[in-house]
Design goal:
This protein has a single domain, classed as Rossmann fold (3-Layer(aba) Sandwich), CATH 3.40.50.170. The protein is 32% helix and 25% strand. The chain is built from 6 helices and 10 strands; from the N terminus they run E-E-H-E-H-E-H-E-H-E-H-E-E-H-E-E. Helix 1 crosses helix 6.
């Protein structure tokens, strides 16, 4: 997230491992599952304190039940108020948007400055918004991919943490391209969370600098 000053370090967010996180979902939760799997494999120093969905009929809920992760369905108009309360109760230091299809208000984003990240199925700043994979195909792009970025007050414009490139094939459809991009999403989203957990991220202007050393080492 961009601050008024040129440099915005995230050192004030340092927490002992594991990093407590809240995950917001609106769909099946495949990126949620990738996070769960990496935690289970000992590759991600995080703990999912709560999963929140704005949709009561999503498969992500089944994933939570299987792994005994607390979840909450929030459909009311003032859903952001409830999210703030749940984040506060959980002690989470990072909010991960994993296919969360509601746009968060500017006030909400400002409240959690530098503590919200999102995964987008394109190489931002190209193809922001909905159906990014279809946009890439229609535009005739040769390469697309996915981006993990900090969330700021506008849609898909926050500072970029990590990206992965995926070449477009001549016979690609939106479905085939989406499937290949999704595999890369599952790789880079846990990586970005781990970088945050290790205190290795610093925002300088529009750039996110990644330190070679863990915070405190």
């Amino acid at each position: 997230m961009i601050s008024n000053s040129r440099t915005y370090a995230l050192t004030h967010l340092r927490t002992p491992f594991p990093l407590p996180i809240v995950v917001l979902v609106s769909g099946s939760g495949t990126n949620l599952q990738a996070i769960i799997d990496e935690i289970g494999a000992g590759q991600l120093d995080a703990e999912i304190k709560m999963v929140i969905s704005n949709n009561p009929d999503v498969y992500a809920i089944n994933r939570c039940k299987k792994h005994k992760i607390p979840f909450k369905i929030i459909c009311q108009p003032d859903f952001e108020v409830t999210i703030v309360q749940e984040v506060a109760k959980s002690g989470a230091k990072l909010i991960c948007l994993a296919g969360f299809m509601k746009i968060l208000s500017k006030d909400f984003v400002k409240k959690f400055k530098g503590q919200i990240i999102n995964i987008h199925p394109a190489l931002l700043p190209s193809f922001p918004g909905l159906r990014a994979q279809g946009q890439a195909l229609l535009y005739g792009a040769k390469i697309s991919g996915c981006t993990v970025h900090f969330v700021n007050e506008d849609v898909d414009t926050g500072p970029i943490i990590i990206q992965a490139a995926v070449p477009l094939l001549e016979n690609d459809t939106e479905e085939t391209l989406s499937a290949r991009i999704l595999k890369e999403e599952h790789n880079i989203y846990p990586q970005a969370i781990q970088l945050f957990a290790e205190g290795r991220l610093k925002i300088v202007g529009r750039r996110v600098l990644i330190s070679d050393k863990k915070c405190g080492s």
